[in-house]
Structure formats: C-alpha cells, structure tokens
Amino acid sequence: MMSLLLPFLYARIPAFVLQIVITLNLRAPWNVAACAGIFYTCWICSQRAKTGIIFLDYSLGLEFGVTTMDVIHMTLLVRPLYVFRQLKQTESADKLSWFERFTWAGDLCGSPRGIGWHHQVKNLPEGITNSRKEFVLSRLMSAAKHYVFFDLGLFYMKHNPAFTSPAAFVSQTKFIRRALDCSVYMATNYFMVNVIFATTAVLMVSCTSAEPSSLPNIFGKWEDAYTIRRFWGRTWHQFLRRFVTPLGKKMTSILGFKPGTNGSSYTQLYTAFFFSATIHLIGDTVLNPSRPGISCPFFICQAFAITFEDMVIAAARRAGVKETKWTHVLGYVWVFSWFIVTETPWTAAVNMSGLANGGQLLPKHFPPSLCDILVKFII
C-alpha cells in the first residue's frame, strides 16, 4: 500500500514548493530562479513517481505537467498575491500574515477550476445548493452508479487476453476490436475518476466545512457534446483553463489581435491545445522517457477539427439550416465518430509505450468484483 502511495506524495511535492514560493511574492530575478528550482524539483520527483501501472503513471506525469504550467503562470507571468482573489476576500492577499498567505496559496493551487474565486472558469457543471444531507446522498448514489460501470469495464478487461498479455495487446491489428478495447479502457478509467471524485466530495462535505456548492461534478453533461468544441468546453473537465486561458490571451496580445475577433478566438484555441499537448507530452515522458510526444498529435488535431467544424456550422447557418434535435443527433454521430478515429490510436500508442517500459495495463491485485461474484453465483 505504501509503495503505491509514495508516487502520489512525490507528485505533490512540486505543488507544495510552488505554494511556498507564492507566499514569498518574489520579483525578478528571484522569481526566475524559483521557477527553475521548481522545474528541477519536478524532474527529480518524476523519476520516483512510478507505480508500474500505465494509467496511474501517465496520470502522475500529467500532474507534473499541470504543475509545470502553473509554475510558468504564477512565477513568470503574474504575481498571484495581487492578481487572484477569493469571493469572500476583503483585502489583497499580500497584506495577510505569512501563515494566512500559505493557506490562501494552498486554496489557490488546490482549486484548478477557481471555484469560489473571481477567476472561476466558465461552463462548470451546475453546483448543488441542496442541504448537506441531500448532497451526500446524491454523491453516494453517483459513486455507486459509476462503480457498477467501472466494475463492468474491469470485468471485461480482466477476461480479455489483450489486457492480460502485453504481446496480445501489441499484436492486435483489427481496428474495430482495438477501438472497442481502447474505448472500454478509457471509459473504465473515466468511471474510476468519477467514483474517486464523488467519494472525496462526500468526505469533504461530511467531515469539513466545505459547502456542496463548492464541489460541482468533475465532468459536464454528455448531452452537451454535440460538437467537438462543446465536448472540450463543457462536457470534459475544465482543470486546465486556469492557465491556458491567460496564456492564450497573452499570445493574442503578442500577435496584436483585438478581443472578440476571429484572430483572437482561434489564437486562443490553438494556444490552449498546444499547452494541453505539452502537458500530455510530459505525461508521455514520465511514462516512457524514450517515447516523448506520442500524445501530441491527438491534442493538436482537436484544434484543427474544431476549426473545420466551425466552418461547416457557419456554412450551414448561411444556408438557412436551423438548430434542431436532428442537427444535434447528427452532431453526436460526428463527435462519436471523430473520437473513435482519433482516440483509438492515441490510447493504443500510450499503452504500447507503457508496456515497452515494463508497465502493466491492469494492477496485479483487484478489489472484489461484483461481476465476478455474480457470474460465480449464476454458474
């Protein structure tokens, strides 16, 4: 258990160092030195943050990637104590005592979506304003529902040779079968993330002073995903927006585009996916240092797909096509087809990279499986 916990502790060390640096309110050249120091801390910790399980190691790499972007943003581009402010905050954070600044910086780093802050990201799932009891019950139901689907996915993978034998996964050549396996793999991890988040929300509301409204769902509604733009902007998590949005605006300013123009909009779009690709490149490197960048094509091509999608939608509107439930259905087909075609080779490449570095697709020890128990009972 401790061997599995240590990598996650290593992954949190750079963020903890950043938290301390924020409280110091450093100016040049000390902010540059602090940035370099945290980068070095990330590199050292990433060498030790290994579980041997591909999905977990890749996720830990993404944690280092997100911290790297946060470091660039909060040490080189802005002075956080002056820029960020909580909704309940009455004075600038630089006037707080050191310990209060440390707590404040911890809240800032621990809220990538800016919930309860003036920089809260757009298009978050609607928060729950019910009583604490109703919130806890709803999240317990959500955790139970997602655990059932997680267990089904795990059952499929445990009894699929492609996941129990590295050679079988690598040698699989039929696209439809590989697409099915990769989709189940991604969906199972999606359900696992939802279980963890719902359980964490229950514990925070039950055991701390956290309000239900401060813990909206990690993902948005799937019915909103009838375009690729809406999938990334509404349905998928918004954990990267805190820094990709200001970085995009900074790039727009450098290139001289005025806010509200197409030049500004698409500069921010391509900048966002460039930095998203960079974060996942760091995940690739932590997973297998000899294969960096295998995730980049997937994320870069999303921006091109959204550009194409916008052109088609604009042409349809000029032709008098109205938005109806049938255009939404067509959109769902388009989005589903797009991700089957692009997500399958990306997931396969990441898993093959992990296998080549000695990683495992599945952990050796599993929690009790409801599906296994049910099958044994029926048989």
Automatic annotation (TrEMBL):
Subcellular localization, as worded in the UniProt entry: Membrane
Domain of life: Eukaryota
Alphabetized UniProt keyword annotations: Membrane, Transferase, Transmembrane, Transmembrane helix
Major site of localization recorded for this protein: membrane
GO cellular component: membrane
Membrane topology: Multi-pass membrane protein
UniProt-recorded Gene Ontology molecular function terms: O-acyltransferase activity
Coiled coil: none
Domain named Wax synthase: residues: 216-300
GO biological process: lipid metabolic process
Keyword Membrane listed: yes
Pathway(s) annotated for this protein in UniProt: Secondary metabolite biosynthesis
Transferase is among the record's keywords: yes
PANTHER family according to UniProt: LONG-CHAIN-ALCOHOL O-FATTY-ACYLTRANSFERASE 3-RELATED, OS04G0481900 PROTEIN
UniProt record similarity statement: Belongs to the wax synthase family.
The protein's name: Wax synthase domain-containing protein
Top-level taxonomy: Eukaryota, Fungi, Dikarya, Basidiomycota, Agaricomycotina
